[in-house]
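ok here's Secreted protein, seq below lol
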Amino acid sequence: MSTGVIILIVIVAAVVVLGAAALALRARGTRGSRGLKRRFGPEYERAVARHDGDAQAAERELAQRVERHGGLRERALEPTEVERFEARWAAAQEHFVDAPREAVGEADRLLADLARARGFPDGAQYEEQLSALSVHHADHVQGYRHVHRVAHAPEDGPGTEEMREALIEGRALFEDLMRAPDKRPMVGS
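and the structure came out like this:
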């Protein structure tokens, strides 16, 4: 065999190996994207929008959240805690008719307290608590975000209808947090 043929075979083999490696990396990245989309659901789309459509930047952020909070194990609530949180939520809902703003404020505090009781970061560190909740309760974390935004809006901000919608959205997270950790559907990884 001539030297030219040997060089050509080596070059073709190198191109094939590099092509296979590129395809393998691309497939692995896609699987990671699908996994993050499945795990975070609407939170994935929100992160992409926050990064001006840059899916890779959003995926890096979400992967960092998983790394930081993925190992968090939720603590089960004691029966007395369950009763207390349920009573507080019922009172906030009943209070809404007479004082919607105060009821939403109570719902915001209640969600923060409930998340802390379940083992999430303290509500005084809202962004960190929200980040951890997004890893474990991605389908409902928007409700907490909405309640918090409305609760901290200026007096002339949201109307009664938006406050009602926020309370309804927040209730989904409340109900999810009230379930025992082993009673919730498994989140995709």
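fwiw Residues 3-69 form one domain. kinda neat tbh
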